[in-house]
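To: structure desk
From: M.T.
Subject: fold request, one chain
Message: Could you run this one when you get a chance? Sequence is below, nothing fancy, just the single chain.
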Amino acid sequence: MPHNVRMPGEWEPHQATWLAWPHNPKDWPGKFAAMHWVYVEIVRHLSVGERVEILVKDAALKRRVLKMLADAQVDLNRVGLHLCETDRSWTRDSGPTFVKRGDNFEAVCWQFNAWATYRNWKRDAKVAQHISRLVKCPAIEATWKGRRVVLEGGAIDSNGAGCLLTTEECLLSEVQQRNSGFTRDDYNGLFREFLGIEKVLWLPQGIVGDDTHGHVDDLARFVGPKTIATIIETNRKDDNYAILKANRKRLSALRNQHGKSFDIIELPMPRPLIFRGVRLPASYANFYIGNSAVLVPIFNDPNDRHALNALAAAFPKRDIIPIPAVDYVWGFGTLHCSTQQQWR
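Reply: Done. C-alpha cells follow.
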C-alpha cells in the first residue's frame, strides 16, 4: 500500500461507530419527532457489538438522549455522548475518514461544504477535527495542489485491499462541483496519497432523488474484498432504469489492480417513494456494516425481504437488522449516511 496507509473495508473490526443526534426539524419537516426513536434503534443494535459515540448539540439534548436510550434498555456503558454543535446529522459526510497507517490509525479530514448545495455547513465543517481530538488520533488535513480537498465519506467506498468505488457524477461533474478543475487523475492521485488506494473504480452516476448528486453509497457497495453489492431496477418505466442498467454494465467490466473481476450481488430497488411531490433516494444500498450486525433500511415495500435475504447471504455471521426508513429517507439519507466507523 502507498505510504503504508490503508482504508479498511467497512466489515473489518470497529472500535466504535460515530453518530450525530438529530436536532434540526428542517431536515425532516413534518416527520422530525420520529427520527429520535429511529436513532435509538440504531444505537440499540450497534451497541451490542461495539461502542457507539454520539455528538449532541447541548446538555439538554444529552439528558434527553440518555433518558431515551435508558428507556429502550440500551447498555449506557457502551455509549459515549459528546457535546458538539452540528448543522445536520450526516456524520458519514462531515466526519473524518479513518484509515490505518501501520499499526495505528489516523483521521483524514476533508473540507465539508454541505454537498455544494446548502448554506448552513460551518458547524459541520468542524466535526472531523473535533472527532479526531476526541479519539486522540492524528488529524490529516487532505490537500491537493495546495487546496483543501472537498469530499464526503458517502462519495467513496473501499474494499480494504486497495480499490475504491466512486461516481463520475459526484466528483467530475460541474453540477454541485466539489473541487473546481480537479480531473480523474487528480482524484486517483489524492486517493492514493491519503487512503492508500491503488485503483479507483469509476461508476457513471447515482440514483434519482439524491441531493448529493451521485453518492456511491446509494448505488454500489463493497461487501468483501472481491464482492460488490449493487442496486438494479427492473421496471423499464422507472427513471432509475437506464441509470442502473449502465451502472450494472460498468460493474461487469471493472477489474481490480491485479486485473481480476468482481463478484456482483444484485439488490432490488423499492418502488418509487414520493412525499410531498418529491422523489426520495430510497435505496437498500445505504446499509451499514457493524461488528455484529448489518443495519438495512426498509421501506414497507415487497422488495424489502429480497434485499434482506441477499445481504443475509453476504453476511452469514452477522445479524441482519431491518430499520424502518420511510420517514428516515425524507431527510435524503439513511443508515450509511448517519454513521462513521472508527477502526480498532
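Reply (cont.): The domain at 2-343 is CATH 3.75.10.10 (L-arginine/glycine Amidinotransferase; Chain A). Let me know if you need anything else for the meeting.
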